[in-house]
Design brief:
This is Class I SAM-dependent methyltransferase. Keywords: Methyltransferase, Transferase. GO terms for molecular function: methyltransferase activity. This protein is an alpha/beta fold and 408 residues long. Among the domains are: 141 residues, Vaccinia Virus protein VP39 (Rossmann fold, 3-Layer(aba) Sandwich); 118 residues, NAD(P)-binding Rossmann-like Domain (Rossmann fold), CATH 3.40.50. 32% of the residues lie in helices and 19% in strands. A hairpin with a 5-residue loop joins strand 16 and strand 17. Helix 5 runs parallel beside helix 6. The two termini are 42 Å apart.
Length: 408
Amino acid sequence: MQCRFCKTELENEFIDLINSPASNSFLSKEELNQPETYFPLKVYTCHKCFLVQVDEYKKSDAIFDSNYVYFSSYSTSWLAHAKRYTEMMTERFGYNEDSLVVEIASNDGYLLQYFHQKNIPVLGIEPTANTAAAAKEKGVESIVDFFSVALARELEKDGKKADLILGNNVLAHVPDILDFVGGIKIALKSDGVVTMEFPHLVQLIDNNQFDTIYHEHFSYLSFYTVKQIFESQGLQMFDVEEIPTHGGSLRIYAKHAGDTTKGISPNVAALLDKEIKRGINDLTYYSNFQQKAFNIKLDTVNFLIAQKKAKKKVAAYGAAAKGNTLLNYCGVKSDLIDFVVDANPHKQNKFMPASHIPVMNEQYLKDAKPDFVIILPWNLKDEIVEQLAYIKEWGGQFVIAIPALKIL
């Protein structure tokens, strides 16, 4: 296997989370009696460019199909984040009715709807037809396709060049990252801006966030490596922010290398220096992550077994992809966790892949009154604790497993 950026042969294993189905491959009741397809979930670190990556065992077009169940708009905190971004970017760069804002992986229009409300022309590019249909209902024009150099050239032929290209949590999802970034360069106006948000590899390592590893994520990204990737395609970083989403993410700002209209923020050198001091370009930094994950596995399984022995009822909240990684790595099934609650109706009345834990609505939680509720999307912990505060009325307690098992 070769590095998908620098083509160096990969020799250094970062972590092996063993085999599991794709994290969003939820099952119907009828499918429970059918075989599931499992794929290796092994991650490597490139010793040359330090891109952390999983091999493409499961093809992206099989993951992001017409039955994709992740809809961004079901998280109120994520909607608020999108709205704040829209306000900030409009104020900073002065987008108006003569601009074009393009979002790659626009999902159900959760973000572009806010630009649209300001009468700023928008275009979404989204490979999943069902989420794109939801975006169109919000007035967000959407192309159902994967973004690539080929699609960027088609847009160019149609006279569509973007003043702003944005992508939230998509850069890690693309198997051919060079083709993806190369397409951005083609689709961007000469004085245009690119912003991308993605979970920060430093947070993943420092806070044991191994559950953010799943087949949909082909790459795990540091600023050090992303800067190299963008520069290889003629794009230059001119600013970067550390933001709290998804347990700690980066928002990068890029421009054409020849664009002299934007100065380089001191944030760029500062974050690069911070990562290098942390050891981002030294293989030692990536060692021992397997053991950290294994410790969480032991603690989680021991906790669940202890509660079952004590005749306690355990549920979970949030049928998130990271939850599936955690449960499947731990080998947890529906005999240890009775059910999981999710606000997304597209997941309700289905079953989580591999674990076969049923996904229910919130009323089911109120009726069942579990003793413990494990918050699987720990990055939304505060939002969920506030929303489900009523479980304390019957003595219920919240639990998180990342970065360490803790009863809240």
